[in-house]
Write a structure and sequence with these properties.
Elements (H helix, E strand, L loop, with lengths): L3 H7 L11 E4 L2 E8 L9 E8 L2 E7 L12 H4 L1 H5 L9 E3 L8 E3 L2 H19 L4 E4 L9 H10 L4 E2 L10 H11 L2 E4 L19 E5 L3 H4 L6 H9 L3 E5 L5 H4 L3 E3 L6 H14 L5 H7 E2 L1 H8 L4 H8 L3 H13 L3 E5 L9 H14 L9 E4 L18 H4 L8 H4 L9 H10 L7 E5 L11 H9 L3 E6 L4 H6 L2 E4 L8 E3 L6 E3 L11 H12 L9 H11 L7 H6 L34 E2 L3 H5 L19 H6 L2 E5 L15 H6 L4 E4 L1 H6 L7 E6 L2 E9 L7 E4 L42 E7 L10 H6 L8
Helix pairs in contact: 4-21, 5-21, 6-15, 10-13, 10-14, 10-15, 18-19, 21-22
The protein binds ligand MGD (2 copies), iron/sulfur cluster and molybdenum atom.
The site of one ligand MGD has 37 residues, from strand 17.
GO molecular function: acetylene hydratase activity; iron-sulfur cluster binding; metal ion binding; molybdopterin cofactor binding; oxidoreductase activity
Protein name: Putative anaerobic dehydrogenase
Cofactor: Mo-bis(molybdopterin guanine dinucleotide)
């Protein structure tokens, strides 16, 4: 697709029924839709769903959809296997044995509604709505639906991604970016133009730093990795900051295999080089920024030799990267999860937003585009919060994370404070957990064994999921079957464009999240839920704020007319960013704040600095002597979305086991061969994965996968959920500046071979479930 114009003109639009949302193709009904979740992803690509007699038979990418150009990842291509999977939950069920025994009795939805509503009303009346915690997972297609149920239906202020300490995903990048430039920014890979790469105004970035992110695999946060591949075909050069040799590192001008958790030092060092060598954009800095002098003074504290020492990177490579980035026009930074999964999180986000600022790469073609949500419809995780009475809202379990918790995008309670409250009953008792779209024990729970003990103290736990997860088996009192993407009518509204998702099939008694929200909402608080069905809810959502002109069926039938990207560049010069219509950025000073006032308001240092990881060669040398490897975790893979898809044969054929990646020298030093099972241990516990050897990794570092459980082991052993779980080693309540960030990608460990019958007599799952966890101080 190097010549995109040629590609566009080559598409047979008639063949793909341009302008139609549904048609007949032989024996198939074809529906033009978007797949969001379940199965999960952060994006929502255009799909053509082929059904016959109400059954989904085939899925193809929609070639007319400029968002994904007909391309699909293996997870969407494999949708039929997921939708048809026999392990799916078919009916609501209530627990009849002890918790964890996996004894269930089928009940009807009416019984489930009655039972659950009775519990909710009981706890509300006796302990207040705040005694009920609403839990969801990462941004699947639940990001306004479940908050609406929790805020307006239950009216609890305690909504959370449970046990996921330090808001350690995405949110800090959103609020940090907002503090600096008033908005969120993404790499401008032309997505705001329906004609994409052929657009006359657009330009490919000359250089992109792919930083702590692997967008080909993760496609996270409104950005598809293949857009960047397309840019590379048009000349974009890559700098990769990653301890692993990723696809990007292998094609980079400069690969910086950084010591995990030291990225802030690198970013500040680059700022220093760029300012010292006078490579910054004087015009932009003078006219549009605030705080340059202070920033310039701070970054002087990070000369390149010091940064080289902290990061373990050669000084020349750091200089080369800084110069290449600063001299490229335009340039951009594709940042990722490694930003939050380290203690320096808020400083790192700031330093990198400053790098964009001083080089003048903000809101220019091929730079970092300032983005908002389609049609300014901005209700997401705060949806329905106006229905929570103020005196109840004031009881939200907040921690130190002021900037994050008080922002209007994700007004979540602090999961560490919830964890403590579950354990201690303070500041007030928590009684009920409503878990919908999270397999907490397998994936988000930092210190998973501790999380299990805390959950056991809850009186009533509901889990709503498409599958019977280990979390459901371990602690649920009732489980509800959730419909998958092709089984729900829905709306995708996160950045742009606004997209509709159509229901084309039904699995037993599973219900989509919208249906579940409406059914419970109208029973729990009818005033806030004057809806008959899912489509009523969607119509309300689409028109409650913002300026979307139609209803839900308009959206699904005329999706192609609703490509509402705000394609303007340099919006700050045009008075398009501020409510007062003045020129400038949507910040208190109207400037791009290199030293943001918001940080000061949140009681954070408004200038970036480096914090050493809480454990490592520098902070804890004695521990390092015994645990000499740095453990980073969670690098994404094509086959899985977090803990999902472990039951799908196709995925397991490609990726049968959890893999721990290590340098051959590390393997040799520890007597480990390719493909052998390896214990990964710290003083807090251990887990096992299979060795994958490659010279493409910083030899100080090993990388373990996250989210593993083993459906094939069956529910009796809770699917072996702790056996390969790196979150036996991670900790809750260890967070960075302002209570934000968590060192999930920079811990210490040692490794040794699993020897059958010798050192594997007790599995981690048995250790946690039967013996009460790992013994540690
Ligand atoms: N297929 C798939 N896609 C997903 C997900 C999934 O589970 N599967 N999860 C979704 C979610 S919720 C998220 S948050 C995103 C995350 O997606 P990404 O941002 O891509 O996150 P990761 O793959 O965890 O890590 C990115 C890279 O950071 C590197 N890394 C590790 N430690 C460090 C460090 O200290 N510094 C630097 N600079 N790099 C480091 C890793 O080697 C890895 O290549 O993906 C989303 N998309
Ligand atoms: N060690 C380590 N741990 C990590 C990470 C890491 O990098 N390293 N990454 C962390 C990150 S960034 C995140 S965001 C968390 C993610 O943690 P979670 O988002 O909680 O992910 P899962 O545990 O996979 O749980 C999601 C569940 O939702 C179900 N589901 C999927 N789609 C839908 C839907 O549309 N509706 C409903 N109701 N259910 C659905 C799935 O079947 C699955 O059981 O994990 C974190 N855990
Ligand atoms: S990015 Fe991949 S998994 Fe996500 S919706 Fe698109 S094709 Fe599906
Ligand atoms: Mo995430």
């Amino acid at each position: 697709m190097a010549d995109y114009k040629e590609y566009l003109s080559g598409i047979n639009r008639e063949l793909y029924h341009e302008g139609e949302w549904q048609w007949q193709e032989g024996e198939y009904t074809v529906t033009r839709s978007h797949q969001y979740t379940a199965p999960g992803c952060h994006n929502s690509c255009g799909v053509l769903l082929y059904t016959k007699d109400g059954k989904l038979e085939k899925v193809e990418g929609d070639p007319l959809n400029p968002f994904n150009n007909g391309k699909l990842c293996m997870r969407c291509l494999n949708l039929v296997e997921a939708v048809d999977h026999p392990d799916r939950l078919k009916y609501p069920m209530k627990r009849v044995g002890e918790r964890g025994e996996n004894k269930w009795q089928r009940i009807s939805w009416d019984e489930a509604y009655a039972m659950i509503c009775e519990k909710v009303n009981y706890y509300k009346k006796n302990f207040g709505p705040e005694s009920i915690v609403g839990v969801h997972g990462t941004g699947r297609n639940i990001n306004w639906q479940l908050p609406m149920l929790f805020n307006a239906g239950i009216q609890t202020p305690n909504i959370s991604t449970l046990f996921f300490s330090g808001f350690a995903c995405y949110l800090p990048r959103i609020v940090g970016s907002t503090a600096v430039n008033g908005d969120f920014m993404i790499v401008d890979a032309s997505v705001q133009h329906p004609d994409r790469y052929a657009n006359a105004e657009w330009q490919a970035p000359e250089c992109v730093i792919v930083w702590g992110n692997d967008p080909l695999k993760s496609n996270a946060d409104g950005f598809l990795g293949h857009w960047l591949v397309q840019c590379m075909q048009m000349g974009t050069k890559i700098i990769s900051v990653d301890p692993r040799l990723t696809w990007w590192s292998a094609r980079a001008e400069v690969w910086l295999p950084i010591r995990p958790g030291t990225d802030a030092a690198l970013a500040i060092g680059m700022l220093n080089i760029i300012i010292e060598e006078d490579l910054y954009d004087h015009d932009f800095v003078e006219n549009w920024t605030y705080g340059f002098e202070e920033l310039a003074a701070r970054v002087k504290e990070y000369p390149v030799a010091k940064v080289a020492e902290i990061t373990g990177l050669p000084a020349e490579k750091i200089q080369k990267a800084a110069r290449l980035f600063a001299q490229a026009k335009p340039a951009a930074i594709q940042w990722g999860l490694a930003f939050e999964q380290q203690i320096s999180c808020m400083s790192l986000v700031l330093a990198v937003a400053d790098l964009i600022g001083i080089t003048g790469n903000i809101d220019v073609p091929g730079g970092m585009l300032l983005v908002r949500h389609a049609f300014n419809a901005h209700r997401h995780y705060n949806c329905g919060s106006e229905f929570t009475p103020p005196e109840v809202a004031a009881k939200k379990l907040n921690g130190a994370a002021k900037g994050v918790a008080e922002n209007s995008i994700v007004p979540h309670a602090d999961s560490d404070v919830i964890l403590r409250a579950m354990e201690t009953g303070k500041p007030y008792p928590l009684k009920m957990l409503w878990v919908q779209s999270s397999n907490s024990l397998a994936c988000p729970a930092m210190d998973a064994p501790r999380a299990l003990e805390a959950m056991k103290k809850m009186e009533f736990i509901l889990v709503a999921d498409p599958f019977l997860t280990p979390t459901a088996v371990a602690v649920a009192d009732i489980v509800l079957p959730v419909g998958m993407g092709p089984e729900r009518n829905s709306v995708r509204n996160w950045w742009t464009p606004m997209r509709a998702q159509s229901k084309v099939c039904q699995y037993y008694e599973a219900k989509g999240d919208e249906e579940i929200v409406v059914e419970f909402g109208k029973r729990l608080n009818p005033e806030a839920f004057p809806f008959e069905n899912d489509v009523d809810l969607l119509n309300w959502y689409l028109t409650m704020d913002g300026d979307y002109p139609g209803n839900w069926s308009d959206l699904r039938e005329k999706t192609w007319e609703y490509w509402d990207w705000d394609a303007a560049y340099r919006k700050y010069e045009k008075g398009m960013l501020r409510e007062d219509g003045e020129m400038g950025f949507n910040t208190p000073t109207g400037k791009l704040e290199l030293a943001p006032l918001m940080y000061m308001q949140w009681e954070l240092d408004p200038l970036p600095f480096h914090i050493e990881p809480p454990e490592g060669p520098v902070t804890t040398p004695e521990l390092y002597a015994e645990y000499p490897l740095i453990l980073t975790t969670g690098a994404r893979s094509y086959e899985f979305f977090h803990s999902e898809h472990r039951q799908l044969p196709t995925m397991r054929e490609f990726h049968p086991d959890p893999l721990v990646t290590m340098h051959p020298e590390v393997a040799a030093a520890n007597g480990i061969k390719e493909g052998e099972w390896v214990w990964i241990e710290s003083p807090r516990g251990r887990f096992k994965q299979k060795a994958y050897l490659t010279p493409g990794i910083n030899p100080q570092v090993i990388n373990a996968e996250h989210g593993w459980w083993f459906p094939e082991q069956g529910p009796e052993n809770w699917f072996g959920v702790f056996d390969s779980n790196p979150n036996n080693l991670t900790r809750a309540e260890v967070t960075g500046q302002g209570g934000i960030g968590s060192p999930i990608k920079s811990m210490l460990c040692k490794i040794y071979k699993v020897e059958e019958g010798v050192n594997d007599l007790i599995s981690p799952t048995e250790q946690v479930v039967k013996l009460g966890g790992f013994k540690h101080g």
